What does this fold into?
Amino acid sequence: MKNFLITLISLFIPCKKKRRNVRDYLRARFNVISNRNPMMIKKYPCFPNALIKKNHRCLIVAPHPDDECIGCGGIISKYASNIDVLIINSSGVARNKKELNAEHMADIRIKEFNQCMNKAKIKNRWIFRIFGTPPMFEDIEKHFDEYLKTVDFKSYDRIFMPHISDGHKEHRYVSTCLLPRLLEKSGFKKASLAVFYEVWSTIDDPNYFEDISSVVKNKSKLLSIYKSQGGDNYAKRILGLNQYRGLVSRYEYAEAFKIVPMTDFLELAKKENSDFPI
It folds into this structure.
């Protein structure tokens, strides 16, 4: 039945090349919607609808400046008016003792973040000035009450965060230890969704792919603003992941996410936060 419908629809397209492209696209979308894509898992099947709709308020929580663009630069480019960004830690880490000490690096990274958000037209954004020697768990914990006073977590329909198995220890700490306590303390919308994004390791079982083909150049420009992290060369490497995700989802470029109900996220976090006895 599926192949019959695809063939029937494609017959209305006169151009042979476009007809083939439409058939490939429809097969991919049917496979995703019917949960036959091998990248999907049964408990959280494919999310077939648009992740962000016109009335949605979304918060991207990033451990450090640039993480928000690595994982969600396409989302930011497409839905800037829906999005606020919270950077937990400015990540001031010394490059050398004199010219690029920890405090100086924190200021550089804060400046780059604000330039990036200006370019992306993100109005509501917050970054906390923290510097020292990683991992900076204790310094982050000192700002716990400030995070609560600054951000109204219960006002968001979608909250983005690094996935809970990310390869960076501070990323896992934010997603499995810090953010769950902030949400439990502040409260959250019952219908809100937790959205895991990719930074320093891939998501094993994504259940949503956002087509970022139309904004990939803009994502590249945003990443290139972070010159302290590598600039243009840095952007090219990140976009390699998006191109690979495009192979899976049949887009040219895509960002991969795992979407779960917020209550399920809190349960998952409890099982994963044993590394952080805070």
